[in-house]
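Q: What would this complex look like in 3D?
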Amino acid sequence: MSQAAFEQLVDISLTVNGERVEARVPAGRHVVDFLRLDLGLTGAHAGCEHGVCGACTLQIDGEIVRGCLILAAQMDGAEIWTIEGVTDSKEITDLQDNFVERNALQCGFCTPGMIFAARDILTRHQGVPSREDIREHISGNYCRCTGYEAIVDAIETTARARNSEQEAAE
Amino acid sequence: MKASVAGYARAQSLGHAFDLLQSAQGEAVVIAGGQSLVASLNLRLSEEALLVDIRHLPELRGVVLHEGVLRLGALTRHAELAQAPLVAEHAPLLTQAAPLIAHAAIRSRGTLGGSLANADPAAELPACMIALAAEILVRSAGNERRIPADAFFEGLFTTALEEGEIIVAVDIPLKAAGDRHVIRELTRRSGDYAIVGLAGVKSVDGVRLAYFGVSDKPVLAAGAMTILNSGGSIEDAVSALQDDLDPESDPHASAEYRRHLAAVLLRRVLADMTNS
Amino acid sequence: MSIRFDNPDRPNSYIGRTVPRPNARRLVEGRGRYVDDIVLPRMLHAVFLRSPYAHARIQSINTEAARAAHGVRGVFTGADLAEHCTPWVAVLAHLKGLKSAPQHPIAVDRATWTGEAVAAVVADTRAQAEEAAALIEVDYEPLQPVTDMRTALDPETPVLHPDLGDNLTFQREHVSGDPAEVMRTAPVIVESRFKTGRHTGVCVEPRSILADYNRSEKQLTVYHSTQAPHMMQVVFAEHLGLPEGAVRVICGDVGGSFGIKVHVYPDEVATATISKILGRPVKFIADRLESFATDIHARDHEIDARMALDEDGRILALDIEDLTGIGPYSVYPRTSAIEGNQVVNLCGGPYDFANYRARTTVVLQNKSPTCQYRAVGHPIAAAVTEGMVDLAAEKLGLDPIEIRRRNLIADDAYPYTSPANMRFEGLSHHKSLNKLVEMMDYPALRAEQAALRENGVYRGIGIASFIELTNPSPFMYGIGGARISAQDGCTVRMDPDGSVVAMSGVTEQGQGTEAMLAQVTAEAVGVPVQRVRVITGDTQTTPYGGGTWASRGAGIGGEAALQAGRALRENILAVAGAMLQCAPETLDIVEGNIVDLGTDTERMPLSELGRVVYFRGDTLPKGLPRELVVTRHYITSDYPFAFTNGIQASYVEVDPETGFVKLLKHWCVEDCGRVINPQLVDEQIRGGIVQGIGGALYEESLYDTEGQLLNANMADYLVPMASEMPDMIIGHVETPTRESELGAKGAGEAGTAGAPAAVMNAINDAIRPLGGRVTSMPMTPERILRSIHHLPE
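A: Here is my prediction, written as structure tokens for the whole assembly.
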């Protein structure tokens, strides 16, 4: 075996927002650039490219991740969901409504990543999370505009509404 | 910036991974969760990297009881550490430590093996391994060896791993009834690397105290431990930290401030052990 | 017709109501369109090689290997671009004595800060351009850098630009009354030194530009993440030798700006220049690391302050000596002297006193250039002033609320001219203070603080009054010769279906400008707000204007929209009168329908009027004016600025063992005049407070003595995050400006202006019993601990 076993362009086959995608990607290309440049999914934003700002937060294989810290080459067989996909599926319409209603976004650049962090705690947390829990869960997502309070409010409102719906159903 | 990567190969088995590493003649690096590696690639801290992806190897997974120890596969993710019932029962230090690591979107991907191999001196898990007296299982094409945690971390981002070696698992002695596990750290913001942190384990053998963020590697506070384990006072142990620790100044904190915080943490961790 | 703001049940009552922003929906769905989202045919990507030295002569540059690299379409040095782009000198005539050196888009023979561009590569992809940039060889001769602003003017310090003669770029002293004499005789004197940390804006969207020069049309189109499209149009035209009309600047979604994106950046001008040279679209998206070294910095100040008071705690005099370092160049075209000038203008601002001396000294240094960042100068002036007031209160044994009551300008004292010669039309310091005391239940909080202290818990309450400069007139930049518009326009158009389009020269950065314009237009014309579409950020389609800066969008742009909407309404009613054969004065427009005035009886929908005007104009009387497009402009003229005021309070807990601070709660009462959209104003205040907290507790661009930036990444440069931020209670007092019918003043910077002072005073209130006091920002745990606990150096 020689270094020829290493590929500069890597073939991957995966699903993105429920659609089958086949692509050949440069070995060093991260997932955000893959989504933006190869697939035209510009909802994921590159804010720092060193894994700190959280603007590129999205979902891979059921978990939220930083798109800039994952190479597209590693995505063979993966299932990726972006803001475009979870919008189309309407599963977070209530959360998005509450973001708009509460003005939990200003410039909007951090918002797709923030929505994924919010969606994650709403999915994982039993009942209504405390404001501290919400703040902790979004603590890896930079927002320079809002001061965070409106975002916490929007998530809390969504959690309360979902919880009372669930209680009503039970 | 964009990563400079010369090539990528996905290992199909551990043997395949060793072959790939060998073929690259020392030029390849192992990638698993990539949570530290890809950041450093994007910062162009390395050029023309060759990557061997071991993320899919089943032999590196699993949280099991094995011959009287808790065995954690190298690919155990931080999110799994936080959740695993076996970890909570037998090594609750790690259950406490995992949520302190970065943020949810990183814990979902970052791995135990990756954290240990990266050997960031301010990271939680290396210090936890030392406090737990864990052994790190390392394998290469022709060899397997066990490295005690306090011999594994050699310096800034430097470990006892040799060329061609991969961490496969860690073995952790089981917590006995009455043992106390405590980790505390001081960070400016939730999820930041600690200015100073302390992982402590109290058992019938005495206390083990491992600091992080105070040196170029995690440090066992040997002098303080000796005093405490021979019935000395807490304040004598605090004094012994002067010799145990030799922190440096950086933009986040001066050496003296770190020393001060190390003392504060010692008192707090010991109090937690008594109170818990 | 004047708007009955006092009547919430009036028709079309959008002004004063919370209305969701029309553009928020697409942003939460990931459908924003930021510059980096735009892809044009044959587009290239620019990357800049940057100086690793703070100060170095460029001996030679070898670009051969880079030119040969894969995908590279061009490599440019400073000398290459100097043939196509003229340099600029950032001075303003009204800042007397301000001097700066000519600056090129890429350094020509000398690099003057770590991060200054020394060469550019354009390639098919950003990754290729980065690979190639690493292949450029630059032969530098390192020169001694000027880093410490305290020694910048010493004779042994090298002069950064020899042609300027020295490193003093600007100095201004203002004296009113006889402060020296009062300081000699006053019974109470307090003095202190303050430092504010050099920090930057960290917009989550980095600076972004896509320049597209089309040779066949001789037209430069620039897609730009900017706050001031018309200003940039002028700059590109002037320095690239193009007519202004041949430059179009389009500003779509902007991912945060905060003043960072209102300046001319050399790398952005270089990008446009390269596009003109190549005749191809060129995109430059700043990398995060280079952003820290090239986005403007701000607030690098050291201030010595003295305050004189009488025995009753009335302020008699204030003396301010301010020193600031601005980097190697004054930043174009707004200049880097404004911040120091603002410190002189704003210190002591909320208080009624007569004797004042303030001097700012602005020096050059080899660090990133500084310029205007959100609340320019205000946080510095407020921290110094409020810090001194608290110090005086401590010395006199007065409660911080009581000393402010004794000194704040009385609510009936207006118009009032401050000792710094700032003219206030109408402020509400006492009303605001009273409201704050009530909102926070000040006595109860003091009781809680005292009770907890018995248990060794160290909590503190900090109060900070402030003023904010908004709605600037040409006195800010225009009179100094800068082609920056203080006037703004709005074009309002009714289309055949009765919907309305408003085009405005003010811009949207996420603060809600477009929502504000939609509300004002909807109420002025008489249509549902959902029927108004707003267009901003395009120099070719919107009326000429200034854009977003100095909290001017609502006050200036809103009034232009109000007047344009009113005029369109009159035109519509004239046509309606002809169609319905009645006097226009007997008609009104309510929720998109022509109605009888007074009874609101519906006569016809606007869509019917639109149908007739646009498709059956033959049925209208010949010669009847039927102009359904109207433009109006607005500029302030009675006052140079519309000042606002407010007061903030912070409640904190300090861990005396570690120096760590926990922010428990924050309050702000502010008076921005007429509130058009309460929610948007509140969120501006909240976001501003947290940015102010950033400067107070976390943010600092750290340099070593060689001028190396030590924390140019997001892991080491800390900004506020969700976990540590408090909930914030916001209240309002409304004192509308009488200069406009709308009565709106600005609200974008009030939070940032007052928050650092409030937090500083709260921390000092908490640690006072421990003998501690901090006046250096950011107030890190280490600085706090060192003030209460002996630590060896």
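A: To summarize the key features: Chain A touches chain B through 39 residues (CB under 8 Å). The mean pLDDT of chain A is 96.
Q: Very helpful, thank you.
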